[in-house]
Amino acid sequence: MSGHDLTSHPDSYRDSHPKSKYYAIIVAGGSGTRMKSAVPKQFLLLNSIPVLMHTINAFYKANTQPQIIVVLHPDSHEYWNELCIEHNFTIPYQLVDGGETRFHSVKNGLSLIEDDDAIVAIHDAVRPLVTQAIIDESFDCAGQYGNAIVAIKSRDSVRQIKDNRSQSLNRDEIYLIQTPQTFRAGQLKQAYLQPYQEKFTDDASVVEQTGVNINLVNGSYQNIKITYPEDIAIAEFLLKQ
Protein backbone atom coordinates (compact mmCIF):
# COMPACT_ATOMS: atom_id res chain seq x y z
CA MET A 1 0.00 0.00 0.00
CA SER A 2 1.51 3.31 -1.03
CA GLY A 3 0.56 6.92 -0.63
CA HIS A 4 0.52 10.02 -2.83
CA ASP A 5 0.30 13.63 -1.69
CA LEU A 6 -2.82 15.41 -2.83
CA THR A 7 -2.08 18.55 -4.80
CA SER A 8 -4.16 20.48 -7.29
CA HIS A 9 -3.17 20.85 -10.94
CA PRO A 10 -6.28 22.54 -12.37
CA ASP A 11 -5.01 22.95 -15.93
CA SER A 12 -3.07 19.74 -16.46
CA TYR A 13 -5.56 16.89 -16.38
CA ARG A 14 -6.74 16.96 -19.98
CA ASP A 15 -3.12 16.76 -21.16
CA SER A 16 -1.91 14.18 -18.63
CA HIS A 17 -3.70 11.27 -20.29
CA PRO A 18 -5.11 12.65 -23.57
CA LYS A 19 -6.16 9.21 -24.81
CA SER A 20 -7.97 8.28 -21.61
CA LYS A 21 -11.68 8.53 -21.10
CA TYR A 22 -12.99 9.38 -17.65
CA TYR A 23 -16.08 7.91 -16.04
CA ALA A 24 -17.72 8.33 -12.65
CA ILE A 25 -20.02 5.61 -11.31
CA ILE A 26 -22.11 7.13 -8.52
CA VAL A 27 -23.64 4.41 -6.38
CA ALA A 28 -26.98 5.45 -4.89
CA GLY A 29 -28.55 2.29 -3.53
CA GLY A 30 -28.81 3.24 0.15
CA SER A 31 -31.98 3.34 2.24
CA GLY A 32 -33.11 5.70 4.98
CA THR A 33 -32.90 3.13 7.79
CA ARG A 34 -30.14 4.69 9.88
CA MET A 35 -31.46 8.16 9.04
CA LYS A 36 -34.81 7.12 10.54
CA SER A 37 -36.36 8.42 7.35
CA ALA A 38 -38.81 6.93 4.87
CA VAL A 39 -36.89 8.69 2.11
CA PRO A 40 -33.56 7.13 1.01
CA LYS A 41 -30.72 9.35 2.22
CA GLN A 42 -29.50 10.20 -1.29
CA PHE A 43 -32.82 12.00 -1.86
CA LEU A 44 -32.87 14.00 1.39
CA LEU A 45 -32.65 17.75 0.94
CA LEU A 46 -29.32 19.44 1.58
CA ASN A 47 -29.67 23.22 1.32
CA SER A 48 -33.01 22.61 -0.45
CA ILE A 49 -31.46 20.29 -3.07
CA PRO A 50 -31.35 16.46 -2.96
CA VAL A 51 -28.01 15.07 -1.76
CA LEU A 52 -27.50 13.08 -4.97
CA MET A 53 -27.72 16.23 -7.09
CA HIS A 54 -24.90 17.84 -5.09
CA THR A 55 -22.77 14.74 -5.69
CA ILE A 56 -23.43 14.60 -9.43
CA ASN A 57 -22.71 18.31 -9.69
CA ALA A 58 -19.30 17.88 -8.03
CA PHE A 59 -18.20 15.46 -10.75
CA TYR A 60 -19.81 17.55 -13.49
CA LYS A 61 -17.72 20.56 -12.40
CA ALA A 62 -14.44 18.62 -12.23
CA ASN A 63 -11.77 19.56 -14.78
CA THR A 64 -11.63 15.95 -15.95
CA GLN A 65 -15.35 16.14 -16.87
CA PRO A 66 -16.07 12.41 -16.52
CA GLN A 67 -19.07 10.76 -18.11
CA ILE A 68 -21.44 10.15 -15.22
CA ILE A 69 -23.24 6.88 -14.51
CA VAL A 70 -25.80 6.84 -11.68
CA VAL A 71 -26.67 3.44 -10.22
CA LEU A 72 -30.06 3.53 -8.56
CA HIS A 73 -32.49 0.91 -7.28
CA PRO A 74 -35.12 0.37 -10.01
CA ASP A 75 -37.92 1.16 -7.55
CA SER A 76 -36.46 4.65 -7.14
CA HIS A 77 -36.15 5.64 -10.79
CA GLU A 78 -39.59 7.23 -11.05
CA TYR A 79 -39.15 9.22 -7.84
CA TRP A 80 -35.70 10.40 -8.95
CA ASN A 81 -37.07 11.50 -12.31
CA GLU A 82 -39.76 13.50 -10.51
CA LEU A 83 -37.11 15.18 -8.38
CA CYS A 84 -35.12 16.09 -11.50
CA ILE A 85 -38.18 17.79 -12.98
CA GLU A 86 -39.01 19.54 -9.70
CA HIS A 87 -35.47 20.91 -9.30
CA ASN A 88 -34.88 21.53 -13.01
CA PHE A 89 -31.86 19.24 -12.87
CA THR A 90 -30.42 18.86 -16.36
CA ILE A 91 -26.84 17.59 -15.89
CA PRO A 92 -26.35 14.69 -18.34
CA TYR A 93 -25.84 11.17 -16.94
CA GLN A 94 -26.72 7.53 -17.62
CA LEU A 95 -29.09 5.79 -15.22
CA VAL A 96 -28.54 2.09 -14.38
CA ASP A 97 -30.40 -0.35 -12.14
CA GLY A 98 -28.79 -1.11 -8.80
CA GLY A 99 -28.13 -4.69 -7.75
CA GLU A 100 -28.58 -6.82 -4.66
CA THR A 101 -25.43 -5.44 -3.00
CA ARG A 102 -23.02 -2.57 -3.61
CA PHE A 103 -20.76 -5.07 -5.39
CA HIS A 104 -23.52 -5.93 -7.87
CA SER A 105 -24.51 -2.28 -8.31
CA VAL A 106 -20.95 -1.29 -9.22
CA LYS A 107 -20.75 -4.24 -11.60
CA ASN A 108 -23.95 -3.04 -13.32
CA GLY A 109 -22.49 0.42 -13.79
CA LEU A 110 -19.19 -0.96 -15.01
CA SER A 111 -20.99 -2.95 -17.72
CA LEU A 112 -21.60 0.32 -19.62
CA ILE A 113 -17.87 1.01 -19.96
CA GLU A 114 -16.29 -0.79 -22.91
CA ASP A 115 -12.87 0.88 -23.00
CA ASP A 116 -10.36 -0.97 -20.79
CA ASP A 117 -8.04 2.04 -20.94
CA ALA A 118 -10.65 4.34 -19.44
CA ILE A 119 -10.24 5.62 -15.89
CA VAL A 120 -13.22 4.98 -13.63
CA ALA A 121 -14.07 6.60 -10.32
CA ILE A 122 -16.56 4.88 -8.00
CA HIS A 123 -18.21 7.26 -5.55
CA ASP A 124 -20.84 7.08 -2.83
CA ALA A 125 -23.89 9.14 -3.73
CA VAL A 126 -24.09 10.29 -0.13
CA ARG A 127 -20.66 11.97 -0.11
CA PRO A 128 -21.85 15.27 -1.60
CA LEU A 129 -18.97 17.42 -0.30
CA VAL A 130 -16.19 15.82 -2.35
CA THR A 131 -14.11 18.54 -3.98
CA GLN A 132 -13.16 18.93 -7.61
CA ALA A 133 -9.48 18.87 -6.56
CA ILE A 134 -9.86 15.44 -4.95
CA ILE A 135 -11.79 14.12 -7.97
CA ASP A 136 -9.21 15.34 -10.48
CA GLU A 137 -6.23 14.15 -8.43
CA SER A 138 -7.82 10.72 -8.08
CA PHE A 139 -8.18 10.42 -11.85
CA ASP A 140 -4.63 11.65 -12.39
CA CYS A 141 -3.08 9.25 -9.87
CA ALA A 142 -5.11 6.27 -11.09
CA GLY A 143 -3.93 7.04 -14.61
CA GLN A 144 -0.31 6.92 -13.44
CA TYR A 145 -0.40 4.10 -10.89
CA GLY A 146 -3.44 1.99 -11.84
CA ASN A 147 -5.62 3.01 -8.91
CA ALA A 148 -6.09 5.75 -6.32
CA ILE A 149 -8.13 5.33 -3.13
CA VAL A 150 -9.06 8.43 -1.16
CA ALA A 151 -8.27 8.10 2.55
CA ILE A 152 -7.68 10.14 5.70
CA LYS A 153 -5.59 9.38 8.79
CA SER A 154 -7.50 8.47 11.93
CA ARG A 155 -7.68 11.37 14.38
CA ASP A 156 -8.81 9.14 17.22
CA SER A 157 -7.20 6.39 19.22
CA VAL A 158 -8.18 3.00 17.84
CA ARG A 159 -8.71 -0.33 19.57
CA GLN A 160 -9.37 -3.75 18.07
CA ILE A 161 -11.50 -6.38 19.77
CA LYS A 162 -10.14 -9.89 19.30
CA ASP A 163 -10.96 -13.04 21.29
CA ASN A 164 -13.12 -10.95 23.65
CA ARG A 165 -10.20 -8.67 24.49
CA SER A 166 -9.41 -5.19 23.19
CA GLN A 167 -5.98 -4.11 22.10
CA SER A 168 -4.62 -0.74 21.11
CA LEU A 169 -3.56 -0.10 17.51
CA ASN A 170 -1.11 2.52 16.27
CA ARG A 171 -3.38 5.22 14.89
CA ASP A 172 -0.52 6.55 12.72
CA GLU A 173 -0.90 3.34 10.70
CA ILE A 174 -4.71 3.55 10.49
CA TYR A 175 -6.41 5.18 7.52
CA LEU A 176 -10.15 5.72 7.07
CA ILE A 177 -11.24 4.98 3.54
CA GLN A 178 -13.48 7.33 1.58
CA THR A 179 -14.57 7.65 -2.03
CA PRO A 180 -13.92 8.24 -4.85
CA GLN A 181 -12.01 5.02 -5.45
CA THR A 182 -10.54 5.29 -8.92
CA PHE A 183 -9.08 2.62 -11.21
CA ARG A 184 -8.00 1.80 -14.71
CA ALA A 185 -11.10 0.17 -16.19
CA GLY A 186 -9.28 -3.02 -17.19
CA GLN A 187 -8.01 -3.53 -13.65
CA LEU A 188 -11.49 -2.94 -12.21
CA LYS A 189 -13.26 -5.19 -14.73
CA GLN A 190 -10.87 -8.06 -14.06
CA ALA A 191 -11.52 -7.76 -10.32
CA TYR A 192 -15.28 -7.74 -10.76
CA LEU A 193 -15.16 -11.09 -12.58
CA GLN A 194 -14.72 -12.63 -9.12
CA PRO A 195 -17.73 -14.13 -7.33
CA TYR A 196 -19.18 -11.87 -4.64
CA GLN A 197 -17.78 -12.28 -1.11
CA GLU A 198 -19.10 -10.67 2.07
CA LYS A 199 -15.65 -9.25 2.83
CA PHE A 200 -15.92 -7.02 -0.26
CA THR A 201 -16.85 -3.82 1.58
CA ASP A 202 -15.62 -1.46 -1.12
CA ASP A 203 -13.98 -1.47 -4.53
CA ALA A 204 -10.45 -1.45 -3.13
CA SER A 205 -11.12 -4.72 -1.30
CA VAL A 206 -12.40 -6.29 -4.51
CA VAL A 207 -9.35 -5.21 -6.52
CA GLU A 208 -6.91 -6.09 -3.74
CA GLN A 209 -8.22 -9.66 -3.75
CA THR A 210 -6.67 -10.07 -7.22
CA GLY A 211 -3.21 -9.25 -5.84
CA VAL A 212 -3.08 -5.66 -7.08
CA ASN A 213 -1.35 -3.07 -4.87
CA ILE A 214 -3.68 -0.37 -3.53
CA ASN A 215 -2.50 3.25 -3.61
CA LEU A 216 -3.85 5.79 -1.13
CA VAL A 217 -4.27 9.51 -1.87
CA ASN A 218 -5.18 12.23 0.60
CA GLY A 219 -8.86 12.77 1.17
CA SER A 220 -10.59 15.39 3.31
CA TYR A 221 -12.19 15.31 6.75
CA GLN A 222 -15.01 17.33 5.18
CA ASN A 223 -15.72 14.59 2.64
CA ILE A 224 -18.31 13.14 5.01
CA LYS A 225 -20.79 10.38 4.29
CA ILE A 226 -24.42 11.24 4.99
CA THR A 227 -25.45 8.38 7.28
CA TYR A 228 -27.19 9.81 10.35
CA PRO A 229 -29.63 12.73 10.81
CA GLU A 230 -26.96 15.01 12.30
CA ASP A 231 -24.84 14.56 9.15
CA ILE A 232 -27.25 16.75 7.17
CA ALA A 233 -26.79 19.61 9.62
CA ILE A 234 -23.00 19.18 9.51
CA ALA A 235 -23.00 19.11 5.70
CA GLU A 236 -25.16 22.25 5.51
CA PHE A 237 -22.73 24.02 7.86
CA LEU A 238 -19.73 22.95 5.78
CA LEU A 239 -21.37 24.08 2.54
CA LYS A 240 -21.78 27.57 3.98
CA GLN A 241 -18.06 27.89 4.73
Structural class: alpha/beta
Task: Assess the beta-strand content as a share of residues.
Answer: 25-35%
Number of helices: 8
- How many domains comprise the coordinates? 1
H/E element order: EHEEEHEHEHEHEEEEHHEH
Q: Which CATH-level-2 architecture?
A: Alpha-Beta Complex
The residue ranges in which pLDDT falls below 50 over 5 or more consecutive positions are 1-19, 31-36
> How much helix, percentage-wise, in residues?
25-40%
Radius of gyration from CA coordinates: 18 Å
User: Mean pLDDT across all residues, rounded?
Assistant: 89
Distance between the termini: 34 Å
CATH topology: Spore Coat Polysaccharide Biosynthesis Protein SpsA, Chain A
The CATH superfamily appears as Spore Coat Polysaccharide Biosynthesis Protein SpsA, Chain A
Shape: globular
Order of strands across the main sheet: 1-12-8-11-7-2-5-6
What is the number of strand segments?
12
What's the main sheet like? 8 strands, mixed
State the name of the first-level CATH class. Answer: Alpha Beta
Jot down its keywords:
single chain; 241 residues; alpha/beta; Spore Coat Polysaccharide Biosynthesis Protein SpsA, Chain A; 8-stranded mixed sheet; two-stranded antiparallel ribbon; 8 helices; disordered N terminus
